[in-house]
Design a protein that fits this description.
- This protein is α+β, with helices and mostly antiparallel strands and 337 residues long.
- Helix 4 packs across helix 6.
- It is globular and about 65 Å long.
- The protein starts with a strand and ends with a strand.
- The model has no long low-confidence stretch (mean pLDDT 94).
Length: 337
């Protein structure tokens, strides 16, 4: 095993380092991307993990902290590249996208970036060059953001093919969310870009933002277990890879949503971890929108089909057209593993 070089940093075998990848100078000052490097003593693949590509989807960074604190680097084969905050500007504003004067402000749609483009495209260019290009596998971790959603699934790029698709699918299954959503991940996403470069990748949606301590810890631990399971699959940790049973596999045609068409205050009937993965029946009441001024019921959100709930919304303010609840239609699911 040799030293791992990233940016201007070099991390020796068995070592840990914190690299800072410079992007540009903004009106707020110098902008750089922090990357934690955990280099194993034994040869193995390089796994990169992105968090907070959307600035308001940031709970997974505590999972990276727990992983760093508990991982025995003496038993690590290969290298971990951990980005707790992929988009520092959006993170600082607690916004989904970067606040700047140009277009293309959604980092999730800016890869492989442009070093002379918008600030967001500059961020993407640095991550693509210094992180994705140097890894053998990628996990892009998202969550429910300020909208108040909780999610639990692993997304597989529907355009991936051959060995890249097989490896990416295995990563999605190993992460163990209970759902593999064959989804639209174009090359402008981190996972889609990685796949286009021949790199296996999965985009994971786990947890939410501003959850109770109990819920935050639950999704933190799920994320750590998922990462460790993928590392075992890749041969970075000892052990036999295993796939949790009962995982649902479905494509975009099977995804059905119940979203509010009226603004108001949503009273959710599906806001516990156990609600994600439970079977629902067509017409089942999932939530009620209350008009904040008249205090009358403005709308009922009901399951549009028989299926399995894979993202839900906490109680709170919702706008018209916001995301509410999503169900995998049981009649259109590809498989249950």
């Amino acid at each position: 095993m040799s030293a791992f070089v990233i940016g201007s940093s070099s991390v020796a075998p068995g070592g840990r380092g914190l690299a800072s990848l410079p992007v540009t100078r903004t009106l707020r000052g110098d902008l750089s991307i922090p990357v934690h490097v955990l280099n194993g003593l034994k040869k193995g693949p390089t796994l990169a993990i992105l968090c907070a590509v959307h600035g308001d989807e940031n709970g997974s960074l505590v999972a990276l902290k727990k992983l760093i604190d508990t991982l025995d680097r003496d038993q690590l084969s290969g290298t971990l590249l951990l980005l707790p905050v992929a988009n520092p500007l959006a993170f600082a504003d607690l916004r989904r996208e970067t606040s700047e004067q140009r277009e293309n402000t959604d980092l999730h749609r800016c890869f492989p970036g442009n070093p002379k483009g918008s600030i967001t495209e500059m961020i993407a260019a640095v991550i693509a060059k210094e992180v994705i290009a140097k890894c053998d596998a990628l996990i892009d971790i998202h969550a429910g953001g300020n909208g108040g959603r909780t999610q639990q699934r692993a997304d597989l790029n529907e355009d991936a093919t051959g060995e890249v698709r097989a490896k990416s699918f295995a990563m999605c299954e190993a992460f163990g969310t209970g759902f593999v959503h064959v989804n639209f991940l174009p090359p402008s996403t981190a996972a889609g870009h990685a796949n286009a470069q021949g790199i296996a990748a999965c985009a994971v949606e786990v947890g939410g933002t501003y959850l109770s301590t109990q819920l935050a810890d639950y999704y933190r631990d799920m994320t750590v277990q998922g990462i460790e399971a993928v590392m075992t699959l890749l041969g970075m940790l000892k052990g036999q890879p295993s796939v949790p049973p009962g995982q649902h596999v479905f494509g975009r045609k099977a995804r059905k949503e119940a979203n509010p068409t009226r603004a108001g205050y949503l009273i959710s009937l599906a806001d516990e971890p156990a609600d994600l993965g439970r079977v629902v029946s067509k017409g089942e009441l999932l939530g009620t929108v209350i008009d904040p001024f008249t205090l009358e019921v403005a709308e009922e959100l009901r399951a549009p089909c028989d299926g399995v709930l894979f993202f839900s919304r906490m109680s709170g303010i919702v706008d018209a057209g916001a995301k509410g609840f999503a169900i995998a239609d049981s009649a259109l699911m590809e498989a249950t593993h």
